[in-house]
Amino acid sequence: MPIQSRNTLRRALHLTSALVRPSLAILCMAPLLTFGARAQTAVELPTIVVRPETPSTTAGGASDGPFTPADTATISGVQAQGATLSTSDSGSLISRIPGGAAWGAGGVSSLPAVNGMGADRVQVSINGMLFGLACPNEMNPPLSFVNPAMIAGARVYMGTAPVSVGGDYTGAKVDVSVAPAQFTPGQALTTHGSVSGFFRSNGDGYGVDANVTVSNEDTSVTYTGGWARASDYTAGDGTTIKSTMYETQNHALSVSKKLQDQLFTFQIGGQFIPSEGYVNQYMDLVENKSIFGNARYEGLFDWGKLEATVFANRVRHTMGFIEPDKSGDMPMDTRSTDLGYAVKGTFGVSAHDVIRLGNELYYNNLDDWWPPVEGSMMMGPDTFITINNGQRLRLGTFGEWERHIDDKWTAVFGLRNDIVWMNTGDVQGYNEMMYGQNAALFNAQDHARTDFNVDASAILRYEANESSLYELGLARKTRSPNFYERYAWSTNAMAMSMIGWFGDGNGYVGNLDLAPEAAHTVSFTATWHDPAKKVWELRVSPYYSYVLDYIDADRCALSTCPNLPGNLTTTDNFVYLQFANHDAWLYGVNIDGKLALWDDATYGKGAFRGSLNFVQGQRTDGVNLYHMMPLNGVVAIDHSLGHWSSSLELQLVSSKTLVSQVRNEVETSAYALLNFRTSYELDMVKVDFGVDNIFDTNYDLPLGGANLVNYQVASMMGSSAAWGYPVAGMGRSFNTRVTVKF
Ligand SMILES: [Cu+2]
Q1: pTM above 0.85?
Q2: Ligand 1 geometric centre to CA of 386 (Å)
Q3: CA 140–ligand 1 middle distance (angstroms)
Q4: What does the alpha-carbon distance between residue 50 and residue 16 come to, in Å, rounded to a whole number?
Q5: CA-CA distance, 28 to 47, in Å (whole number)?
Q6: Cα-to-centroid distance, 273 and ligand 1 (Å)
Q7: How far apart are CA 264 and CA 261, in angstroms?
């Protein structure tokens, strides 16, 4: 390779792997950051030009690779910090990006959705680690293993992202960085960090976050972690939304060492959630414990860059009922292990060409069992085994070619293969009489499944001039079914109601015949801005996906399914469903932009920020897809003056009327919320204050699922959930946070 191009590549790679204090990350923070915050920071901090939010190397490949598609969304560490004023739920941060939304779950366990694809369709990696399924209700999704204040940066890659980003997802890939290395000049060790505490009036939420780094020019040791708790929140009409309390703590300790062009990082951490209520599930989380470790390597060589990651997680999860909103006795346990590695090489083969090659292995093991309930005829005398030594092994391999054709045109082509092997052992129910037939039928079948998945992505970028860019993306992305989609086996009404991460109150049974779903997506992104990107910016991203064998559900028609034949036709009750493949399409458009309004010494800087998101999705048989976020947008004014920065934000959501007929999804009404926040930062102290939902508007969460706790009807069991009630969102909340840096 010519010396010049090698040096160019080397410099480029150096830049992308440059490591910075998260607080400096703001300088280059992309589209979502307000003008105000950026301007203010620029005054106070030295100008260090590096790529900021350096998310980690992912198990799927390059997150800090040089090619970032134009529709990629970023969440900076500063934005994540800012969000902690309002929420302790990292999953909910996804609702702040273009096309992003969050399925309501427990208070710190929302499931992310992007461009209409949610839950398992969005793959989340945290410092390159993947967290497999460890609960039939997905109560412990990957983003629940990190508090928002721990996030140093995140990137969200959309459905046509390069194949090096990852495999086994169809919607989006979220790549989160926690406690990245932060080197400081010289051999002397320096210490810096921050401690903050917060209080939110609605639900009496409070907690602390801390991070501290000891570093010099080649060594960095960082701890980051936090603890938060809250009681049930109150809706705008004064109703206490039951089973929404939570308590959580997450911790991570990271050690990095730099040896010339090599960077080694070791990280350990863990989580403890002693209780988390679920208003849209029949169960609550009564204990979740995890421990993880990962090691990462990045090295620069004459030929390019080598990155490697290896990781392990262990999760232990227990469900039960949290008094007084839910009562009774029904323990449910899971134990999950994740192991994986990823290796990626980036080769600068010419002045115009970069080749990426990668290989990754990801293994998830799951046991899910429900101990017998003493004295219960129905739930005893044996242990109910849902998943017995479930195994899911995925081997992914990709090749990618990025060509800089000339100074206007860039093309990226990639091909990827993921082989997924799944298997599980034999099962049993609480007793032979009620569950024996189902169990025997399941045990008589072969459970081993192998999927040979082929993904591809092609991106063509045209930078017409310094103020406009156009990009076309084409991709095929495949996702194999998860454990419960394939292996949940019981058609007993109670057992079915325990399965499902949809929050819809319905019951689910698996399907051994499920095929992987394959999304074929075309997207186009146009961005326009003033040459310096200081005055205005507009980005428009339409997309269309045709998903072969989209994994949805049908009304359960098996002869053993409950409530037949009414289950097949009812339109106003909870139903029993079986996972099934259906072809489906989704399309939509995301628009976001900003505009500087004024800038002078007396009135500071003011800027307008806005976004609009639209998505629709339907199966080819006419059934609407579940949890499609209705048309929504944000208009906001951001202001900064001296040490102050403030914003006033109006969030607008239209009514949800296109609902899944097969799940009897409940419609929700349109609403508007007005939020205000301001912060004052002086030397080492920062004080944040905000009011969410200023007018105490009463509204229902479009993706909040069914409220199964507040509304009850008399039944054989005494009382049971009434159908037809969505989950109301939070009413007004006064929020404060005080941060001390050192
Ligand atoms: Cu659970």
Answers
A1: yes
A2: 13
A3: 7
A4: 7
A5: 10
A6: 12
A7: 10
